[in-house]
Amino acid sequence: MGPAPLPETGFLDDWAARLRQAADRPVVGIMLRGSHARRAATEHSDVDVDVLVAAGDERPPSAPTRPAVPQPGPAGRPAPDTTYAARHAYLAEFDGRLVHVSVAARDVRSWVDRLGRPADWAFGLPVSAPARLIWAAPEWRRRIDLPVLCQPADEPRLEDLVATLGKVAGACWADDPVGVRLAAADLARLCPSVLRLANPSVRVASRRAALAAVLDLPVAPPGYPEDMRLCLGLRPGAAAAVGAAAGRLVTGIVPLIRPYAGEIAAVAGTDLAQALVDGRLDRYLAQLTRTLEPAAVAVRDTAAVPAPRAGEWSTVPASDAPVTGAPTSPGAAAAPGPARPSRLDPEIAARLRRSADGLVAAVVRQHDSGEVLMVAWMDDEALHRTLTTGRATYWSRSRQEYWVKGATSGHHQHVRSVALDCDGDALLVSVDQVGAACHTGHRTCFFTELPVSAPEAGA
């Protein structure tokens, strides 16, 4: 079914005249907005109308005298704020059917000022929403005849994001599933404002478009779209799974925005920005997510994936890319292409010489000291995620899924550089290692010295 026709000019003109007569304050403009202004309405859509009224101390010269400010309420209390009056609903006949006309009376100065603030429904993204001026007083027309209503993006609310994860953890500790869900939904709505630092700018015109845009952000933690849906209540899941998803979102976002500490300092202060850089924030998040770790294990197949111990990494399923793959038989020739679909740059993919199961060995070292930390495996998609998120991401041959180092333990690897060897069959990943690289708790996996018996020189 295509979009519903925009109400004819006569219909809108009649409603403009009616609303002007019904208003208890001088009207300076009447604006059509919402799905009809976007030309995206269906036959079920409301006709959303803003009636812009003069401020208490500003009226057209011909306007009658009215009280300049709201009068006190009962017992001397201030009267309710009338900046945005209660909506008035009407059911009107149009094109042989009933139409819901939804009207909001707005103080014109506050309406103009509101355009300079983020929209509360846009997940922190900037807004460009079409509008249509139905009627305006001549002295106001130039100020309010705006074909597109623009609102800025929200500031990166990292402090609020971390505090809300604390509420999720607290509700989980108190065995309060409703509290977990409420806090996780608030947390998910905050995530895009922080992730926006690392992503290309995008503008939205509706709440539905905003949701689609935030779920499609190109720079995001593994599994981000599904974790967002779970926290927002858009897909089913136990409260424990919701809490675990909230923990993954925050711990996954923090490394991605580490390069933007300056922007964080401008909003939340220098201490939080420094904590983002020096690892204190990672340690604090590890404290919070310890409460959520049992939940993180519960949402996986516990028969196949054991609960992680302290200092041990665990696998993190990623729903926005394949998590299973059928390896070829042992001894088969090196795979000419990726075993699983990937978004890796084709020029890089063409240089890889993969194993029979589509993998390339990744040797991981500390970037400044050169200390060799561990060896793991990457396929094309794991390499793509490593290069684009800055978080070391690998493919588990035993569990047949992607995993991000530090996702559970907090022992993150912040990628500084990745180099491909001359044969294309090995990668050198230089990282800034937080904590232990080995699941045993050792700094490096290479902590067992073997005896070397070299023949005497000249023997």
TrEMBL record:
Enzyme class: hydrolase
Organism: Micromonospora auratinigra
Residues covered by the Phosphoribosyl-AMP cyclohydrolase domain: 374-447
Key word Cell membrane present: no
Coiled-coil blocks: none
Domain of life: Bacteria
The entry's keywords: Amino-acid biosynthesis, Cytoplasm, Histidine biosynthesis, Hydrolase, Magnesium, Metal-binding, Zinc
Domain Nucleotidyltransferase substrate binding: residue ranges: 158-254
Name of the protein in its database record: Phosphoribosyl-AMP cyclohydrolase
Pathway: Amino-acid biosynthesis; L-histidine biosynthesis; L-histidine from 5-phospho-alpha-D-ribose 1-diphosphate: step 3/9; Amino-acid biosynthesis; L-histidine biosynthesis; L-histidine from 5-phospho-alpha-D-ribose 1-diphosphate: step 2/9
Record: residues binding Zn(2+): 422, 438, 445
Compositional bias annotation for Pro residues: 61-77
Catalyzed reactions: 1-(5-phospho-beta-D-ribosyl)-ATP + H2O = 1-(5-phospho-beta-D-ribosyl)-5'-AMP + diphosphate + H(+); 1-(5-phospho-beta-D-ribosyl)-5'-AMP + H2O = 1-(5-phospho-beta-D-ribosyl)-5-[(5-phospho-beta-D-ribosylamino)methylideneamino]imidazole-4-carboxamide
Gene Ontology biological process terms in this record: L-histidine biosynthetic process
Coiled coil keyword on record: no
The protein's assembly and partners: Homodimer.
Stated role: Catalyzes the hydrolysis of the adenine ring of phosphoribosyl-AMP.
Family: In the N-terminal section; belongs to the PRA-CH family. Belongs to the PRA-CH family.
Region Disordered: start-end pairs: 57-82, 308-343
